[in-house]
Amino acid sequence: MFAELAPLAGDLASFGAAGLMGALWIWERRLSRARESQLGEAHTALMQDRGLLSVVSELVQRNTAALTGLQETQRQLVGLLSAWRARCEPEKPARP
User: Fold this and answer.
1) What number of other Cβ atoms are within 10 A of residue 62's Cβ?
2) CA 45, 48, 54 angle in degrees (round to 5)?
3) How far apart are CA 92 and CA 58, in angstroms?
4) How confident is the model over 15-65, as pLDDT tens digits?
5) How many angstroms separate the CA atoms of 82 and 80, rounded?
6) pTM exceeds cut of 0.90
7) Are 12 and 20 in contact (CB under 8 A)?
8) Are 26 and 11 in contact (CB under 8 A)?
């Protein structure tokens, strides 16, 4: 940005401190407009992505429910297999 003001340095020197302050004000306003434009674009992008965020959130909730169901099924299966093993294993003779 300073490069934009460099060619004006000679012209501004003739205006003294007031010219320098005016140039800095113009420079600040130009940067502010650019920043406002960037913020506006970012806000627009975030608002467009809001729909995607709700879809991802719902997907995470469904995946969590599915994993919870799978975990419960596995616990039941382990319980059944443990009970079956206990019934089917022959009793070992006690060692003296």
Assistant:
1) 10
2) 125
3) 53
4) 778 877 888 889 899 999 999 999 999 999 888 888 888 889 999 999 999
5) 5
6) no
7) yes
8) no
Neighbour count for residue 40 (Cβ, 10 Å)? 10
Q: What is the DSSP string of 3-54?
A: HHHGGGHHHHHTTHHHHHHHHHHHHHHHHHHHHHHHHHHHHHHHHHHHHHHH
> CA 24, CA 89: separation in Å to the nearest integer?
89
CA separation for the pair 79, 43 (Å, rounded): 53
- 92 or 29: which leads in pLDDT: 29
Hunting for tokens 């012209």 — which residue is that? 11
- Tell me how long the chain is: 96
Integer Cα distance of 96 and 83 in angstroms:
28
Residue with tokens 């003296």: 96
* Contact between 1 and 27 (Cβ < 8 Å): yes
